[in-house]
Write a structure and sequence with these properties.
Distance between the termini: 38 Å
Number of helices: 14
Largest sheet: 4 strands, antiparallel
Helix content: 25-40%
Structural class: alpha+beta
Shape: globular
Order of helices and strands: EEEEEEEHHHHHEHHEHEEHEHEEHHEHEH
Number of strands: 16
């Protein structure tokens, strides 16, 4: 066996896609699109792992079948694929799945999908059974006021988003995404989509999370600030006790803190150049230090559920880092409830990992709208009803 250098510029006819024969740190290894040609014998390519991408390393030639390559033992973060390659591309590495957070909920969400796709209806049935609460009645026939109560919003919106994902999976074969992202509550949804949490456990968790958040601070609230970036906002509100809660997009930031300081904060922000400052309908100062008081009870709930292997990486709200292990998330989610959502940085991280398209599962298109503001060249789609699902399949496949 000997090593050979790999020339990215070599012109070769395209080869058929081949299945990865080894495995990386990830539980599930994806299919790769391969371009190249076969030389005499069995050739293997070693790929260096960088984030969620694979960089071509060296070719190792071996003439036995099946291959055994003891020389690769020093490379635990590498994978093997069969055949000789001159160029290699990851087939599914351009799409990120997005899951919305509180604020996207609306009466009727995912109903048409559930009525058309049995797997989507089953998501509502599973979640309702887990909570002993009729989520279909709440989501489809209840009042918007009832739906907007945090303890109701969180399990219902999570279920509606998983129903949308299941409908898309039932409607067509989806290419494996590069990564998953969820905004605040949506991070729990991403963990269900990634296989780390069962739907039943997830809805019980977010129901508890919603109850804790709802009871934590009736005197707090949130404001949306348009026309200023997060740094300018932080300087303007430095003496008000209000903090940046969601850095959603350039010029679109949410702040959180005591309602008693809203007037002073609004005046300071407008003086700093904000175009608009809009009060949001929330029951507390979410993603602010006020929520630290819920952290112990939330941590206990997070540590009481069963976590399984994460099949798809998730870019986390708290640190905008790509995480591949479910064991990271009890701590991340406990911290997330009182820390700012680093959405702009997270989206840019996704772009840096190779994402060129974003598909949002669940009601509305808030996150795909933010994606276009952060990464203007990105393709976007959303799955919220049968019509949008059919449009989204062109991106998802």
């Amino acid at each position: 066996m000997h090593a050979r250098s790999l020339s990215e510029s070599t012109e070769v006819p395209p080869d058929i896609p081949k299945r990865v024969e080894g495995h990386s740190e990830r539980t599930a290894v994806a299919e790769l699109t391969v371009q190249g040609h076969t030389l005499d014998g069995q050739l293997l390519v070693v790929l260096r792992r960088t984030g969620a991408r694979f960089d071509v390393g060296e070719i190792l030639e071996q003439r036995c079948d099946p291959p055994t390559v003891p020389e690769l033992a020093p490379y635990p973060n590498r994978v093997l694929i069969g055949r000789s390659l001159a160029r290699l591309h990851r087939s599914m590495g351009s799409v990120v799945w997005l899951f919305p957070g509180q604020g996207s909920q609306r009466v009727g969400m995912s109903r048409e999908l559930a009525e058309r796709y049995p797997s989507a209806m089953l998501a509502f049935d599973e979640a309702s059974h887990a909570l002993n609460l009729d989520l279909k009645a709440l989501a489809w026939n209840g009042s918007q006021t009832a739906l907007d109560q945090t303890a109701n919003t969180q399990p219902t919106l999570l279920t509606a988003s998983i129903a949308a994902l299941r409908a898309a999976q039932e409607a067509g074969v989806l290419a494996e995404p590069l990564a998953l992202m969820g905004h605040s509550l949506g991070e729990f949804t991403a963990l269900v989509a990634g296989g780390a949490l069962a739907l039943a456990d997830a809805v019980r968790l977010v129901r508890k999370r919603g109850e804790l958040m709802q009871a934590a601070d009736a005197s707090g609230g949130m404001l949306a600030v348009l026309g200023l970036d997060a740094d300018a906002i932080t300087r303007a509100i430095a003496n008000t006790g209000i903090v940046v809660a969601n850095d959603n997009a350039p010029g679109q930031v949410v702040i959180s803190g005591p309602r008693a300081q809203f007037v002073a904060a609004t005046a300071a922000l407008k003086q700093a150049g904000a175009k608009r400052v809009i009060p949001l309908k929330t029951s507390g100062a979410f993603h602010s230090p006020t929520m630290r008081k819920v952290a112990p009870d939330l941590a206990a709930a997070l540590n009481a559920v069963t976590w399984t292997a994460l099949r798809l990486p998730i870019i986390a709200n708290v640190d905008a880092a790509l995480h591949e292990h479910a064991a990271d998330f009890p701590e991340l989610l406990e911290k997330q409830v009182w820390s700012p959502v680093q959405w702009v940085t997270s989206m840019r991280r996704a772009g840096g990992e190779g994402a060129t398209a974003f598909v949002e599962f669940g009601p509305g298109n808030v996150l795909t709208g933010l994606a276009k503001r952060i990464l203007p060249d990105a393709r976007t789609a959303n799955v919220s009803e049968p019509k949008t699902l059919e449009e989204a399949l062109t991106v998802l496949r």
